[in-house]
Amino acid sequence: MSLPDPDQKETGRIEAFSDGVFAIAITLLVLEIKVPHEVEAGRLARALLEQWPSYLAFLTRFSFIGIMWINHHRIFRLIHRSDHGLLLVNGLLLLGVTFVPFPTALVADYLRHPDEYVAVMVFNGTYLVISIFFNLLWGYAYRRGLFASSTDSRAPRGINRAYLIGPLLYLVAIGLALVNATASLVLNLALAIFYGLSRD
Amino acid sequence: MSLPDPDQKETGRIEAFSDGVFAIAITLLVLEIKVPHEVEAGRLARALLEQWPSYLAFLTRFSFIGIMWINHHRIFRLIHRSDHGLLLVNGLLLLGVTFVPFPTALVADYLRHPDEYVAVMVFNGTYLVISIFFNLLWGYAYRRGLFASSTDSRAPRGINRAYLIGPLLYLVAIGLALVNATASLVLNLALAIFYGLSRD
Amino acid sequence: MSLPDPDQKETGRIEAFSDGVFAIAITLLVLEIKVPHEVEAGRLARALLEQWPSYLAFLTRFSFIGIMWINHHRIFRLIHRSDHGLLLVNGLLLLGVTFVPFPTALVADYLRHPDEYVAVMVFNGTYLVISIFFNLLWGYAYRRGLFASSTDSRAPRGINRAYLIGPLLYLVAIGLALVNATASLVLNLALAIFYGLSRD
Amino acid sequence: MSLPDPDQKETGRIEAFSDGVFAIAITLLVLEIKVPHEVEAGRLARALLEQWPSYLAFLTRFSFIGIMWINHHRIFRLIHRSDHGLLLVNGLLLLGVTFVPFPTALVADYLRHPDEYVAVMVFNGTYLVISIFFNLLWGYAYRRGLFASSTDSRAPRGINRAYLIGPLLYLVAIGLALVNATASLVLNLALAIFYGLSRD
To answer: Which residues of C touch B58 (CB under 8 A)?
Structure first.
């Protein structure tokens, strides 16, 4: 601890700032679940059940932002050094994360509307952009050699393959929305589960 | 500090992210206490006293989220290593924590309503789920051997017993709500005090 | 880093959680400054100047929460070990901090109202309670010997004297509100400046 | 880790608190992008495109707060020790950061209004004050010798020159607003890009 070791310190603060952004984005969501008002006697249970879409939206957004945090964590577990470019690329990723509540609310509001395909395309388009930013972050750290020297060289490569596929599959999901909006959402969900559960 | 020691680093970031979520959930609550509007001369003191339920709700929610933070802290004081599953199980627990404001508002709004038992069941049901998630977290860390090697083996076992009782007692509280909603809330409060004050 | 050193780890997390609470409480305040709407041509500058009370309220709240953070920081710079009681006492203090926006809004709304003395008493009463909690925190850490062994024994004693005077002066401010609400607020401000600027 | 090393601990907590403030300020912004309501069939895409100013405002504010975080990070990478004055000066800077959403909303609302020059002057005035606070922070740390002893003496001097120019250029931008509000905004944007992209 006597040596300055500025690189380690830098990564710590990028992670702390990112954690703050993820934590706020994930916690603000509950504010959108409303208590039903002026319910007659004997009707509260039904009134609560009827607002299932708002619970589902809460659960979906929580899961998606949580999964993105896990992936961010997974990449930064390997990164031990930092530079100016890493701050900028990480900033792009956080921009995507803080934007997520908007397309999610859009899909929730327009799901049975004739224009639902537009909402689903915006939704999948957001994840397309985020998956590109994840690739940028990973690729930047890889090319600049910011990984810990002790990192097993297979770990970055495994992440690499999983991330490269992401943008392609989100492009497919965007095209699919023109044919079938529900199928497009299901593909999005499948991708989220894949990125959430896959172990490196 | 020359060795990579990736496990310690991981726990630190899970705790930082969780701290952020707890801190936001506990701080947002004050936004719901409103300043009384257009009060006549000589009536402000009474107007302030009359909104005692909103102070009580603020106090209750603050205490409950605070107690959950203390318990989270207590478990992670013992956990020194981390893996992918720990991230997922901890995520479930945070999902429960961020959901708490909704059932609390529900009880506050429906406490003297004929359907108050529904509100109290949802309230205790939320804590049942959270207590199960606490057991999952503790059990996962125990089975995967994520505790620090220096941990006194009695500490985890003491926590274990206190946590295993939790879901059973919350189930009792849910059943009790069908008979007497107030008694069910009192049992919930007693459990919160027990988990808040018990020292390991 | 090879020794577990659980005490240091604990203090770190209490501070991180407290930092989150302070940061959120201090940042949410700007949401209450509103952009003036539908202002005629040539009137925007005046419209902006006319809402000076909302800038003053923003500045006051920011300063007060900032000063409390500095004092919290000052105490925890000395505390290196932690136990269950410290979590509870620190929780009481955070409860006071998250409550601050309510009495501040109350004073802003009722400052030229016949009942302004009520609002000012609630305002100073909140700071009375917070100053008692600061004494509790400091006294608890002192009695339980949670300070770092290297701590100069004069530093805690200096803080001690400054903190013990606090509750007495806030009591004076509460009594003063019955005679003159403005004088009571000025005393509160003077105390805030004293605690903000005094160096240990 | 056996030595107390209180200075390093202090800087860590100032940075953690500041990170929290920056993270909240940057994340709250998305709450202001609204989902368009009651859009007729076939009109959603257009309705979404028509609210481009709110996306632009989101992007602008995110970038500006992000750039200020990068600059804060850059300064604190060099600062390793802390004292009471640093807390106060850093507090001034955070005051400026939490205020940013107000002038940004002001410009967004009054951009094609006859009084747009007032809004743009407030906007650039805010950045003038923030740039002065950045100079105060840097100057304070420099004069009090709070930099790490290992710091290359050229790094602080490089930052010094870039920061000293800031207030002068923001003064020019304020004057320019009287002649041409758009040109004043463009100069502000150019400065933001300069401070965001310049590497030390």
So the answer is: 99
Q: How far is CA B48 from CA B60, C117, C122, C170, D197, in A?
A: 18, 13, 10, 21, 52
CA distance D95 to C66: 9
Residues in A closer than 8 angstroms to B9, CB to CB, are 77
Residue B1 lies in a domain: no
In-domain check, residue C172? yes
Which segments of chain A does DSSP mark as H helices, in order?
6-27, 44-50, 52-78, 84-99, 101-109, 116-143, 154-179, 181-197
Chain A CB within 8 Å of residue B98 CB: yes
Give the predicted TM-score (pTM) of the model: 0.84
| pLDDT top residue among B13 and C48 | C48
The whole domain housing C136 covers 6-197
**Distance from C-alpha of A84 to C-alpha of D70, rounded to nearest angstrom:** 8
Q: Using a CB–CB cutoff of 8 Å, tell me whether A13 touches chain D.
A: yes
Does the beta carbon of C99 lie under 8 angstroms from any beta carbon of chain B? Answer: yes
Out of D16, D58, D148, whose CB is closest to A16? Answer: D16
- Chain A residue with minimal CA distance to D19? A17
CA distance C140 to C146: 8
Q: What 3-state class would DSSP assign to B147? A: strand
- Residues of chain A in contact with residue C23, where contact means CB-CB under 8 angstroms, are 20
Question: Residue D40 has what pLDDT?
Answer: 86
Determine whether the interchain pair D76/A118 forms a contact, defined as Cβ–Cβ distance below 8 Å.
no
Q: What is the mean pLDDT of residues D97-112?
A: 86
Are the CB atoms for D44 and D36 separated by under 8 Å? yes
At D187, phi and psi to the nearest 5?
A: -65, -40
Q: Is the pLDDT of residue C92 over 90?
A: yes
- Measured between alpha carbons, how far is residue C109 from residues B36, C104, C180 in Å? 9, 9, 17
Within a domain: residue B64?
A: yes
Mutate to test the interface with C, among B9, B28, B30 (most CBs of C within 10 A): B30
Q: What Cα–Cα distance (Å) separates residue D61 from each residue in A84, D108, D112, D196?
A: 20, 11, 19, 13
- For B96, the token pair is 């429960």
Whether the CB-CB separation of C133 and C92 falls below 8 Å is answered with: yes
Query: Any idea how long chain B is?
Result: 200
CA distance A13 to A19: 10
The total of other beta-carbon atoms located within 10 Å of residue C17's CB is: 27
User: What domain count does chain D have?
Assistant: 1
> Is residue B170 one of the residues assigned to a domain?
yes
Q: Which residues contact A29 (CB under 8 A, 6 or more apart)?
A: A58, A61, A62, A65, A101, B98
Kindly report, residue by residue over B78-132, the tens digit of the pLDDT: 888 888 889 899 999 999 998 988 888 888 888 888 899 999 999 999 999 999 9
Strand partners, B147: B79
Does residue C12 sit at the A interface (CB-CB below 8 Å)? no
Q: B175 versus D154: which is more confidently predicted?
A: B175
CB atoms within 10 A of CB A101: 21
Determine the pLDDT at residue B1: 33
Count CB pairs under 8 A between chains C and D.
94
Chains that touch D (3 or more CB pairs under 8 A): A, B, C
Predicted confidence (pLDDT) per residue in A139-181, tens digit: 898 888 887 766 565 666 666 677 778 889 899 999 999 999 8
* Location of structure tokens 């601990």: D9
Q: Touching check for D20 and chain B: CB below 8 Å?
A: yes
